[in-house]
TrEMBL record:
This is NAD(P)-binding protein. One of its GO terms (molecular function) is oxidoreductase activity. The lineage of its organism: Bacteria, Pseudomonadati, Pseudomonadota, Betaproteobacteria, Burkholderiales. Keywords: Oxidoreductase. InterPro entries: BFD-like_2Fe2S-bd_dom_sf, FAD/NAD-bd_sf, FAD/NAD-binding_dom, Metab_Enz_Cyan_OpOx_G3PDH, Opine_Oxase_asu/HCN_bsu. Residues 35-328 form the FAD/NAD(P)-binding domain. Residues 1-25 are annotated as: Disordered. It comes from Massilia cellulosiltytica. The keyword Oxidoreductase applies.
Amino acid sequence: MPRDRRRPRQPAGVQDDLRGRHDHHHGRRLVKNVVHIVGSGPAGLSAARTALDAGARICLIDDNHAPGGQIWRGGPARWTDARARSAWNTLRGHPGCTVMQDAQVIGCMDSRTLLVETGGRGAAVPFERLVLCSGSRELSLPFPGWTLPGVTGAGGLQALIKGGMPVSGRRVVVAGTGPLLLAAASTALRAGAHVTAIVEHQPWSRLSAFGLGLLSRHGKKFLQAASLFAELRGIPYVTGATLVAATGEDTVRGVVVRTGGKDVEYACDFLAAGFGLVPNTDLARALRCDVVDGAIQVDDAQRTSRTDVWAAGECTGIGGVDKAVAEGRIAALAALGRPPSGRDLPLRRASHAFAALLARTFAPDESLRTMCGPETIVCRCEDVTRARLLPHRDWREAKLATRVGMGPCQGKTCGAACAFLFGWSHEDARTPIMPATARALSDFE
Ligand SMILES: Cc1cc2nc3c(=O)[nH]c(=O)nc-3n(C[C@H](O)[C@H](O)[C@H](O)COP(=O)(O)OP(=O)(O)OC[C@H]3O[C@@H](n4cnc5c(N)ncnc54)[C@H](O)[C@@H]3O)c2cc1C
């Protein structure tokens, strides 16, 4: 019998690690009063908890094995943040809660149905109200040697260590720009690594102004930064420095850094290089939500340009965990037609002020473009160098001519790098927004 394309196939292999109800199995009629949430980081958990507290049912979908997103990576057993634990206590065992972990939303079938790959199979998940909490990605900028084994992003190394990669006794250099460098260095240090240097692109004057900005308006964050600095005491903190090259043959052996007109080489077994974060807007673009300046555009109620889709957390702009938690709550209430609570608005305002301070201090400046020479690989999936990209006018033309962004990562790394290097904007994301198995895709036919 031919399958009705509009009618979702039964999700196969859905992992429901909480006892919940898969109402979407039974079609659109039963998705009423269910808030679907993509992403179980701080924003998604906050939205889920708020919606459940308000009496709604939720379906929380995330592609990681355990909830928590980036900052709370590792799952409930490892959480120390009281907000994470208390959100999980509400979700766990709640009859109105369905959690789909290890489930990637790979796009949409129509404007109201998500396509989810889980356990190698495809599932169609209709929604009535959707909250996007898809977080951010690290901005990796190309420099000579950045594709050597052992070179990762700053958050990337952190995630590998949190996932169990041993670094004890290994030499680590953390480089690039932004507060994530300190967090990554701290994670490496605690895991027993020998952190040989932290290399920050911003000059000391700008970092001092950032510190003063924290002190005057964000006391708690100032204390967090001070305690990180105390923990990292003794590690060379090189400021106003630019990466020249990662060195080594088969694997990284060192990194050359230019500071004060001189080149200095630091030996290392791992180089963690990150240049900040960029909002993850793939799914929003596939759903035709407006994206402005690289972030999902939302109004004061976190509503996107679509009336049935809200967004919260780093996908609406980089600002850290407090912003994610406050926006998650506001988005969930708005999705249920309720106003934000009195305490959420000041929290969001403060978190937006912090976001603006972050952007003023750490936005990558144009001089970082010089790290990428003509022969430096920009698209590592398809081995496309800067020289091959230069003749092209935009992302689309370059893609057609060079295959940039057409490898397994589908431009998730080089797309942001090209936006920075050449000012190219992305075209709309198309389903599937990430690589999916043929078997899962055939489930949707
Ligand atoms: C690599 C990295 C490391 C970081 N480390 C720190 C740190 O140590 N300290 C700190 O203060 N901040 C850190 N941050 C910043 C951090 O992202 C925020 O502070 C906070 O986690 C943002 O919460 P969020 O809920 O908006 O997004 P996230 O925590 O990123 O959560 C988003 C979730 O959505 C999931 N998701 C996205 N798209 C899909 C999809 N299509 N289908 C299914 N699931 C999807 C993601 O896998 C993720 O689990 C890091 C960011 C990155 C990118």
